[in-house]
Amino acid sequence: MTLAELPLNKPAKINALPKDDIIAAQLIEQGFTLRSHVSLAHKAPFNGPMAFRLHNTKISIQRAVAEQIGVSF
Question: What is d(CA 44, CA 69) in angstroms, rounded to the nearest whole number?
Fold first, then answer.
């Protein structure tokens, strides 16, 4: 399952980052690290960005990037 498929407010754990090293490095700087707990806070309409709760804050990323991040429950 990917981060983009995560149901609203359901906690999950990140288990895979994008294969692109540049995108993965940017995500790590924002706190999207392996084994981090994350939940979906908001989905923008029309395939817009998605906001996630991560480390007691909300972080928004593009849906295309969220589709590259693997999660498990």
Answer: 18
- Cα 26-27-28 angle, rounded to 5 deg: 90
* Rounded Cα gap, residues 6 and 25, in angstroms: 22
- Tokens coding 13: 């754990």
Angstrom distance (rounded) from CA 29 to CA 58: 14
**What's the pTM value of the predicted model, to 2 decimals?**
0.89
Q: Which residues are CB-neighbours of 42 under 8 A, at least 6 positions away?
A: 50, 51, 58
- Structure-block tokens of residue 5: 């498929």
Confidence (pLDDT) at 5: 94
**Is residue 32 a contact partner of residue 54, using CB atoms and an 8 Å limit?**
yes
